[in-house]
Specification:
Elements (H helix, E strand, L loop, with lengths): L10 E3 L4 E2 L6 E8 L3 E13 L2 E12 L4 E9 L6 E6 L4 E6 L2 E8 L8 E8 L5 E7 L2 E6 L4 E10 L5
Antiparallel strand pairs: 1-2, 1-7, 3-4, 4-5, 5-6, 6-13, 7-12, 8-9, 9-10, 10-13, 11-12
């Protein structure tokens, strides 16, 4: 599967490989803070995709008092675009899934954190929006149907006590 896709991360799928949102001709970002929500938008323009170039807007919204974020992606393209997302998991973690979610819980390794800690995360999604799931270390990937919009909720819980 190639490169990993962290929880709620957005990549493109060209039918054969995972594509990062680069190289780009231009990238701009905007951050807004509201009373109960804040969001970040990142616009990547001129991304090579299936012999053409597309623009992708990613919006991440966080909510006051909640450990969740809504992740949305929109493609400006003449043809359908297929997004890919997923979660990373490690040998010392467990994964779980249901009809509309995938998650992981366990010890987060020191090579990607300042110290070992138990951490859990999950993605909640609409199953009608995704055509397949593949679970292969170190990824659990969701392949979206070919459409130019994408939406999911990303949840994270960290055990505050050092292990």
């Amino acid at each position: 599967m190639g490169s990993t896709v962290g929880i709620g991360g957005v990549r493109l799928w060209d039918g054969e490989q995972v594509l990062f949102l680069n190289p780009v001709k231009k990238r701009t970002a905007k951050v807004e803070k509201g009373k109960n929500t804040s969001y970040m938008e990142m616009l990547s323009e001129g991304i090579p995709y299936k012999g053409d170039t597309i623009d992708v807007l990613i919006k991440v919204t966080v909510f006051s008092g909640k450990r969740e974020a809504m992740v949305e992606a929109f493609a400006n393209a003449d043809k359908p675009v297929q997004f890919l997302t997923g979660i990373n998991y490690h040998e010392d973690t467990k994964t779980f899934e249901g009809e509309n979610f995938i998650g992981t819980w366990g010890m987060h390794p020191e090579d990607v954190a300042a110290y070992q800690m138990k951490i859990g995360s999950a993605i909640i999604y609409n199953p009608d929006d995704f055509e397949k799931k593949i679970k292969l270390l170190p990824n659990f990937n969701l392949f979206q149907n070919q459409q130019n919009t994408f939406k999911l909720t990303s949840l994270r819980r960290v055990k505050k006590k050092r292990c």
